[in-house]
Amino acid sequence: MNVENSSDLARRIEALKREKNAVILAHYYTTPEVQAVADFLGDSLALSIQAQQCDARIILFAGVHFMAETAKVLCPDRKVLIPCPEAGCSLAESCDAGDFAAFKARYPGYKVVSYVNTTVGVKALTDICCTSSNALKVVESLPADQPLIFGPDRNLGSYIQKLTGRQNMVLWNGACHVHEEFSLEKLLALKRQHPAAKVVVHPECRAYIVEVADYVGSTAGILDYCGRSDAREFIVVTEAGILAEMRKRYPEKVFIPAPPDDETCACNNCRYMKMVTLENIRACLENESPEILLDEEVRRAAERSIRNMIAIR
Ligand code: SF4
Fold it and tell me: Is residue 97 one of the residues assigned to a domain?
């Protein structure tokens, strides 16, 4: 795409938003062009909250499928559009609702805590959702003797288990293809080249990566930490889309993306988030389709688990 096409598309999208009373919510992992047409930019927790606070007729979710579903769960009276319905999430796909129901049935009396990176069907089986920003708070809000199922991310689950010392917690065996791919060897080599750099890590990474971090946190947490820290250089061990926002907020600092194990695969980029483009956003606004439609009973059950999370934010 040339620059002229890109700016024409952006102008058309702005006009469509005004004409149709639409807002665009975009995740930090989308491309910089997509982030530039967004009304709100954030991580999944911030965007879930933003979805219910805005009063637009149409919410277009520039992100992956489960995020648009979450917006629809919270805003059933609004038209929620997803420009690329094929944009899934390897983590959400690692947890099929039918398999999760069977897993849950093996643990009667356990409460279910699920990461928001799940389908609406899994959220409907969940007592309380969490994000990487508030997972610790959510787990700590439940009595220490309450046995828990935590899903679907095994890395986030074991990190929380380690922080809380909770033994009575069983983990679903799911993971994100981006965060599992970072190489410890390459990260340590990068650290030797930049000894003053702080290593900032998302808790969806494997435990041996988390162990060498100076800071572990959600996308929003990492952004805050980089602003607060006196350090000038950071090695960023999460999805590379966040770098655009980091460089915009803190132009005086240096952000170095950690390489994935296989550097030819660009796997520190979420391939699903990059499926959202200016072209499919424009077509989606023009056609008001594809739209997220949910079974009302499932939606209500999922809403309870999300609202439980928002209540203890
Ligand atoms: S980075 Fe991983 S968890 Fe996030 S949307 Fe992409 S596949 Fe899902």
Answer: yes
